Amino acid sequence: MRFNEKEMVSLSRQPSEMAAELGMRGPKKGDVVKKRLVKLVVNFLFYFRTDEEEPIGALLLEQCRVEREDTQVFSIVFLDEAERKYLFECNSEEQCGEWVDSIIKASYEFMRKNLIFYRTEIHRLTGKDPLEQYGISDETRFQVNNGLQLMPRDTSSL
Amino acid sequence: MSCSFFSNSHSAHKSTFSSSGVGMKLHEKLLTHYLSCTSPVDKEGYLCKKKERNATYQRRWFVLKANLLFYQERPADRHLLGVIVLEGCAVRRSESGVQFAFSLVFEGPGLKTYRFAAGDGQTQESWVKALLSASHCYLSLLVRDLGRQYEEAKQQRGLGESCHGSFIKQTTTNFFFPVQGPTAEVREGRSFSAGTVLHAPSIPNRVVPKKSPKLWPRRNAHVTPLNGPAPLYGEWPLVGFDPLEDFKKLHDHYGQEVKKAREEWLRSHRAEEAHIDGDLIDLG
């Protein structure tokens, strides 16, 4: 499958708050821990050999589960397959927590859910749709009934 | 083609390969899995895509989901031809001779421009709009902005900490979306269609005013008083404008508030003075 590689490499160079040297272990049996520069940019996790400018690879952080495995270790499981589990060794408990938090919040779907929540709530509280001013209220991606059931709707104000 | 053409293009091509000798690995299965999973697609349809090398257009089926634009030959195909990650690109309606054309222009040295043509004006417009709001950066700014509006709306209602959305609650107070790279903010704004510019609001941290011992309530221009009537939504601290262009408007807007506050203070101050002018002690 083709993809815009140069543009992705350029993206991997964007400044990021979450960029650190972590021990990274791949999902396959026999994969060992390797020191990698791991960098979170938008909803991708890029990983580099520590002295290189171009990333080795990029992992899309959607439909994955991020969990703390140990005080300083977190994992990402993709495709709901336990076999596709990546492990990341951090340098402190705090750093580990930050990474787990950041990766969860970086997911596009997570952000979309929040947006829909805010949109619904702002409309409930003010009677106005906050997306109207941006001219995007009709965009499919921001629809409230976007197949996502956030929480029971409060209909008391209706 | 002359030799100089080849040598120029060769030297201009910067290697993007890491030391493994192959290009960057994009774990495709993760993308295809995401595409086929239950969350809905944001837009799909036929478009003509211009081949990079020559000037021909090929009809492809495009599927937009989140910040990813996939394409394949036909909708039923299992095999995906490719994907375009939509970060760091501007969406332009093309002025070229091709009808209903638009393009994705990736900003940076040596980066691509993808060119498309739709079947009609409505399809073109619909795709341009969808692509304009597709990037992660855009969504990030939007969520941040709406999060702020939500907090303000809650305070207006005097609800304080809402009991709604407990799973969200933990995150809203600590939410921070790092702005990723130069494509956010103003640059993205420029590529938007007229009338809708999203900017990251740069208002300072607001402090909710406490009851002041002064005669007139202390008012911060960015905060509406808790016990005053809420202004109409349209009068709220201006969102959806470009501060670089409309600073004068902003200045005038808050200037009016200051003027009013001053007048109020003068009025009540005079009233007090009048009161004091009378004898402090009634000597009968």
From TrEMBL, chain A:
GO terms for cellular component: cytosol; early endosome; recycling endosome; trans-Golgi network. Residues 15-108 form the PH domain. Signal peptide: none annotated. Transmembrane segments: none annotated. It comes from the Eukaryota. InterPro entries: Boi1/Boi2-like, PH-like_dom_sf, PH_domain. It holds the Pfam family PH. GO terms for biological process: endosome organization; receptor recycling; retrograde transport, endosome to Golgi. This is Pleckstrin homology domain-containing family J member 1. The lineage of its organism: Eukaryota, Metazoa, Chordata, Craniata, Vertebrata.
